[in-house]
Amino acid sequence: MAAATLLRASGFFTLWLALDGGTQAADLAIGLLAAALATRASLALSPPVPRRLAPLAMLRLGLSVLRASLVAGLDTARRALDPRLPIRPGEAAVPFGLPPGPARDQFRLLASLQPGTLPVAVDPDGRLLVHALDTRLPVERETRAVEALFAAASTQGAARD
Amino acid sequence: MSAALQFLGLLLAAAGAFFFVAGSAGLIRFPDQLSRLHALTKADNLGLGLVALGLLPFAAGVFAALKLLVIWALVLLSGASAAQMVAERVRAAEPPA
Q1: What is the extent of the structural domain holding B35?
Q2: Is the ipTM of this complex over 0.90?
Q3: B83/A109 Cβ within 8 A
Q4: What does pTM read for this prediction?
Q5: Which residues contact A86 (CB under 8 A, 6 or more apart)?
Q6: N-to-C CA span, chain A
Q7: Per-residue pLDDT tens for B27-74?
Q8: Collapsing DSSP states into helix, strand and coil, what is residue A46?
Q9: Judged by CB atoms within 8 Å, which residues 57-76 of A form the interface with B?
Q10: What is d(CA B96, CA B85) in angstroms, rounded to the nearest whole number?
Q11: Hey, of B35, B56, B66, which one would you mutate to test binding to chain A, going by the most A CBs within 10 A of its CB?
Q12: What single-letter DSSP state applies at residue A97?
């Protein structure tokens, strides 16, 4: 809990320094106050959950997201500019591997950065509906691969604090 | 060194502009609303990332550079969330055949 508070407070203060750019004592005092209030709001709105973060897996996830968003941009740009407009839009239902909750929402955010896929909704059977720009792509396999990377980077429940 | 970095930055920013053009082409050419969201979330995100990276060598200091990265991250987050919310509404209004 104390670690989470400190981590969030220093994050908010760094953010303030980046946004404000001032280095006068008065600027810094207001920055500290703002960071303290933001931390309080943050802890109230999103209490720290006991979760074990695996740095190496997070790095792997980060690199994979960067690479995916590069591939996704290139792929979408190519399809948009190709005179034949090679797309075949459609939907795929992908069963969730993650339990409901914040982890699922965070995973959906990441999944929308993947090439050719956009999570749209959750169907009545609890599957994630993914809109694909081209249904000939392995949508389900790629979505599940990201989910596995995400789950490896953030293991909930295995508490330390 | 800094001139070389700035030249590289200009190249990156130009590449970013290309992806904005491609994203806009997709926005106009793609046939349905959900596909048009792909054009916005994928091509434009990459375009903004490249422009932000390209501007880094021109930033006045560490915090100015950090601000560019914060802008990129915030747009990624809000773009990804907004796209999914729009997609959910579109889909509820007109379920696919």
Answers
A1: 2-93
A2: no
A3: no
A4: 0.81
A5: A79, A134
A6: 7
A7: 999 988 888 888 888 888 899 999 999 999 998 888 889 999 999 888
A8: coil
A9: 69-70, 72-76
A10: 17
A11: B35
A12: -
